[in-house]
């Protein structure tokens, strides 16, 4: 089958890998508008569930991705720089650029043609590729392919309320940090995590009112950055913020919620963010995009009939998305009302409210949260997580050398 993929993000690159592994006879081209290495955003987090799936699908790229990722442990919630609370858990992170590099190399190794610096933006651009057996539109949340056929897809696009900016910092965090700062204009916060040696990802967010009142809508990029460094001086330990997106300064954006009545029309299929987005505060968009990739490749392998393959893909993937989409909408609503939850609360109570934001919790959960702030309990929890991680890594076939030690807990205040 001759397949053209629009967009060279995780969705299309991993689809190309997955389809080639199932049928090396496919001729696949991936068309990306940006040059190699130029991407938006800085880091992405992911968890063992994604690694389990990637190892099961393609051990080569899974091993490379894991080797290029950083393990972070614990989540720390800081209010006003000093008041701190903790959650357990661990995860992995890497930069988007690294992820794309690993996937591009693997796709090329399997015979996929990856073309950079070419945009599919106009009806004429689209006509030039429309004679492929299948066009896979993985050109992100603002997909041009989807926009060119928005009636046929039944597309709905809703823009979120909170402005956010996807930055980096040279402050190296070793856990996942939420920092909330109260200003006379309202609350502003970031979440940050290590994403490459010497660099952490740092995503700053606030409500629309706070953004205007702080003047972040009106100042220059560099003045805005200096202001954020001042507001977060405590949480960043005086370190700098780094602003870069597609070779320019990062911009304040709003989350775009995308849904479609159908993900396929004629020989076109939407995958990843072009088909559906989930709010970034649950950190699942890349995982879901890569699940689409595996799902679509598998449906093409299962069914000779293209219509049936696309219909099956649409039904299965949509079903597996239902719960996570609901959780993402709840999470977005929580962050759009942070001022209400943060005002008058301490870090332990705010972190509890954050942890249970997606629904009912048993009454003893709050007591457990209080106990889990104890440094001895935190250490025990880290050791238990290390054991769990070791078992999971062995089960999926990670090399033994990757075994990680429990780093010392930072001193508690
Ligand atoms: C602030 C923020 C933080 C996030 N953090 C996480 C996280 O920690 N973990 C996680 O799992 N997910 C996270 N996500 C979500 C994740 O970024 C997306 O869900 C994921 O990138 C979707 O992959 P994709 O391939 O569908 O689209 P994209 O990654 O957006 O890739 C689309 C590609 O298409 C290219 N393109 C666009 N238009 C055209 C065109 N007209 N012609 C040719 N090429 C084109 C783009 O340049 C891009 O390379 C975050 C999102 C945001 C906004």
State the shape: globular
Structural class: alpha/beta
User: Any idea of the CATH topology of the domain at 2-67 and 92-160 and 255-333?
Assistant: FAD/NAD(P)-binding domain
Annotated CATH architecture of the domain at 2-67 and 92-160 and 255-333 = 3-Layer(bba) Sandwich
Q: Roughly how much helix do the residues carry, as a percent range?
A: 40-55%
Order of helical and strand elements: EHEEHHEEHEHEHHEEEEHHEEEEHHHHHH
Tally of strands:
15
Quote the beta fraction. 15-25%
Annotation field: number of helices: 15
Average per-residue pLDDT, rounded, comes to 93
The main pleated sheet reads as: 9 strands, mixed
Query: N-to-C terminal Cα separation, in Å?
Result: 61 Å
**Rg from alpha-carbon coordinates:** 22 Å
CATH class of the domain at 2-67 and 92-160 and 255-333: Alpha Beta
CATH superfamily of the domain at 2-67 and 92-160 and 255-333: FAD/NAD(P)-binding domain
Low-confidence regions = 402-413
Ligand species = flavin-adenine dinucleotide
Can you summarize this structure?
The protein has 413 residues and is an alpha/beta fold. The chain contains 15 helices and 15 strands.
Q: What topology does this entry show?
A:
Blueprint: E1 2-6, H1 10-22, E2 27-31, E3 43-46, H2 48-57, H3 59-67, E4 70-79, E5 83-95, H4 96-109, E6 113-115, H5 123-127, E7 134-137, H6 144-148, H7 150-153, E8 155-169, E9 176-183, E10 186-196, E11 199-206, H8 208-213, H9 221-231, E12 241-242, E13 253-260, E14 264-265, E15 268-270, H10 285-302, H11 306-335, H12 338-342, H13 347-355, H14 365-371, H15 375-396
Parallel strand pairs: 1-2, 1-7, 2-6, 4-9, 7-15
Antiparallel strand pairs: 3-5, 4-5, 8-11, 8-12, 8-13, 9-10, 10-11, 14-15
Bound molecules: flavin-adenine dinucleotide.
The site of flavin-adenine dinucleotide has 34 residues, from α1, β3, β8 and α10.
